[in-house]
Design the sequence.
């Protein structure tokens, strides 16, 4: 898709160096989700939960639920969704570290929308790609 | 045999060419709308080539409606009132317009195509927004991820703006980036300097514009921007002031302070600069200098997570507990906040609890 | 053939469905049938283009290809005509019905490469249809295609993907469903054979 390419919406685009077709990327990640037993809604809700919890913390790290270190930083401006429908998303970057298994992961508001509305976790090699396994291990 | 092949190829070519020509004619005829008149605010008429969007037609005539998404119909910033001639509301506009707006003839100017005479109403200060060509004369590294860039206007141009407003910088293509994007940055220099502006820009991961600014721009490069935009500016009263802005949010505050330095100001002002560690502080000397210039200005940097080897004996933690010492009469205090929506929420709550009236809290929200 | 256009129209929808009997036009059928609304939009656009290009290509065949003895070039010429027509249609819709352009617009270019369109043009040459028969056949095929994609979209909507084995999800199960629909449509074949 044209809007996913580097330099159109974000610097490096949403597909990384993945050679697969967009639909294949989404389908493969969908299969991973089936194996993990989680739906996109559950994942998006959980990500929103952490982002909201750290929203007012000035970009500082706070401890949520005793073992999640979360911080959210916001920069000015909004980005449209690469799938081309109306609506823009703020540039909020949430960084989470699960102190139990030491997995650290980072996502943006646009990531949450892409997962919830399009089941899209970005292509392999993309800067903000969220691997479903790593993501679930970190946030659940 | 060869003659046959040539003949058949010839007919095939003829058929294709005829179809091609038909299409070109159809395109010209169907997409040609001629010259169309646009009436603005009932006062001024401009004539544009029909067929383009209202947003780009106006931009051709140097009238710049704000747009954050570059005309793709996703940001809703380009709304304007189209009293006549806009045609039916398009499906690409509907998600961005409320019922009240639709009833009031508000449309997305980046989606409305100018096909027949059209009458629009736009706010008067739009006329003050212009495109400027500039050259970079200075790049200062303030911190590990923040740079201050000075843009000198070319062609003897001057710019009028209020301290606190922002401009939209247009990037040029570089590396993998083939298109130009436009991003907003608050002006950090005072409005008294009409021939140049300074912007404070922080590098954002995956950011198209900030990466361009940090990694590709050099002194002497030419850059285009439009502006000024925004309604974040210092109100001319004698109320006490609390400024809250961290990181690159210092830009509009610096602009306001430089402006006040010229006009003179004896209001009680306190600027809380929240940062994580010592390496996030910058322009500290300039702020301390302001403390000497103004009779009643205090600069309060607050570090929330100083590094183990940071030498810091100033304020620590979050900024909110320090507010009450800076407020002497909550009812006569204004607050100017610039930063993330989360920070603004938290600070507004805290200020309201201390008695600062909500209508005196002004903010420039990033998100 | 001695079939009246009217009967041909109905036959093209049921007994000789371009998609379920001839398995043409599968790519956009498989990918767009995820949503009922887009399926309906695409189906209607395909019907319109099919009817028009069937007529156009019949005229091109009779008045250009045959007189100049270049019938063997029909493959190239038909495709060029279809592409040009779709392009022209896009321009007209954009100018006169912009609302329709925005909801349908993206599907129009997709239609050019739909093999059902090309297939219909080839069939009308092979089966020697008259002008009216071609139009009826084109319209019927379009509606038959619309019917097939709407049915698949409806079924996919209700299908609980969780129950489908992992390897068959997506295109796999859609093809199986299409096969079952095709089997069902064989039941119509006794009514009137056209091929």
Sequence:
């Amino acid at each position: 898709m044209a809007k996913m390419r580097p330099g159109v919406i974000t610097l490096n685009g949403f597909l990384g160096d993945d050679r697969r077709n967009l639909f294949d990327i989404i389908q493969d990640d969908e299969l991973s989700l089936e194996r993990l037993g989680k739906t996109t809604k559950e994942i998006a809700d959980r990500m929103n939960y952490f982002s909201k919890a750290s929203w007012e913390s000035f970009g500082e790290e706070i401890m949520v639920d005793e073992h999640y270190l979360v911080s959210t930083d916001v920069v000015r401006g909004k980005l449209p969704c690469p799938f081309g429908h109306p609506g823009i998303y703020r540039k909020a970057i949430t960084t989470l570290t699960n102190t139990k298994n030491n997995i650290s992961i980072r996502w943006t508001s646009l990531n949450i929308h892409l997962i919830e509305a399009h089941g899209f976790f970005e292509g392999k090699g993309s800067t903000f790609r969220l691997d479903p396994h790593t993501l679930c291990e970190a946030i659940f | 045999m060869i003659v046959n092949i040539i003949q058949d190829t010839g007919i095939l070519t003829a058929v294709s060419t005829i179809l091609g020509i038909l299409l070109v004619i159809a395109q010209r005829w169907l997409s040609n709308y001629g010259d169309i008149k646009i009436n603005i605010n009932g006062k001024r008429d401009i004539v544009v080539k029909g067929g383009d969007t209202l947003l780009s037609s106006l931009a051709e005539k140097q009238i710049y409606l704000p747009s954050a998404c570059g005309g793709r119909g996703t940001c809703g910033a380009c709304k304007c009132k189209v009293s006549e001639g806009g045609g039916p509301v398009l499906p690409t506009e509907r998600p961005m317009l409320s019922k009240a707006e639709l009833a009031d003839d508000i449309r997305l100017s980046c989606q409305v195509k100018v096909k027949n005479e059209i009458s629009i109403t736009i706010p008067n200060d739009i006329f003050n927004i212009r495109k400027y060509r500039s050259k970079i004369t200075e790049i200062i590294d303030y911190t590990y991820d923040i740079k201050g860039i000075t843009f000198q206007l070319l062609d003897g141009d001057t710019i009028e703006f209020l301290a606190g407003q922002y401009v939209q910088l247009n990037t040029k293509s570089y590396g993998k980036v083939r298109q130009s994007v436009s991003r907003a940055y608050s002006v950090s220099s005072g409005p008294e300097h009409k021939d140049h502006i300074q912007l404070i820009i922080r590098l954002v991961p995956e950011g198209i514009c900030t990466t361009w600014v940090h990694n590709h721009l050099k002194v002497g490069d030419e850059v285009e921007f439009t502006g000024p935009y925004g309604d974040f500016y210092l109100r001319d009263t004698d109320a006490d002031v609390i400024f809250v802005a961290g990181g690159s949010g210092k830009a509009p505050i610096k602009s306001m302070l430089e402006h006040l330095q010229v006009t003179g100001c004896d209001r009680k002002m306190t600027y809380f600069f929240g940062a994580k560690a010592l390496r996030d502080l910058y322009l500290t000397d300039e702020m301390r200098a302001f403390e000497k210039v103004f009779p009643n200005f205090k600069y309060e940097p607050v570090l929330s997570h100083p590094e183990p080897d940071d030498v810091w004996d100033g304020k620590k933690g979050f900024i909110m507990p320090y507010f009450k010492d800076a407020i002497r009469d909550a009812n006569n205090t204004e607050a100017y906040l610039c930063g993330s929506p989360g920070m603004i929420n938290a600070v507004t709550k805290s200020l309201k609890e201390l008695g600062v009236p909500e209508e005196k809290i002004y903010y420039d929200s990033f998100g | 053939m001695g079939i009246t256009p009217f009967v041909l129209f109905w036959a093209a929808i049921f007994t000789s469905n371009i998609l379920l009997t001839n398995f043409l036009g599968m790519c956009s059928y498989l990918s767009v049938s995820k949503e009922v609304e887009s399926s309906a939009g695409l189906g209607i656009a395909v019907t319109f283009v099919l009817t028009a290009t069937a007529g156009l290509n019949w005229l091109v065949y009779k008045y250009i290809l045959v007189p100049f003895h270049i019938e063997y070039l029909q493959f190239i010429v038909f495709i060029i005509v279809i592409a040009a027509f779709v392009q022209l249609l896009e321009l007209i819709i954009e100018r006169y019905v912009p609302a329709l352009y925005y909801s349908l617009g993206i599907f129009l270019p997709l239609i050019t490469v739909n093999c059902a369109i090309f297939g219909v043009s080839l069939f009308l040459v092979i089966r020697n249809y008259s002008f009216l028969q071609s139009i009826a056949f084109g319209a019927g095929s379009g509606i038959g295609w619309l019917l097939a994609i709407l049915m698949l979209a409806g079924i996919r909507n209700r299908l609980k993907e969780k129950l489908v084995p992992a390897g068959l999800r997506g295109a796999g199960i859609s093809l199986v469903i299409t096969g079952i629909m095709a089997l069902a449509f064989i039941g119509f074949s006794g009514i009137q054979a056209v091929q």
Q: What stands out?
A: The radius of gyration of chain A is 15 Å. Chain A has one domain: 41-139. Chain A has a mean pLDDT of 87.
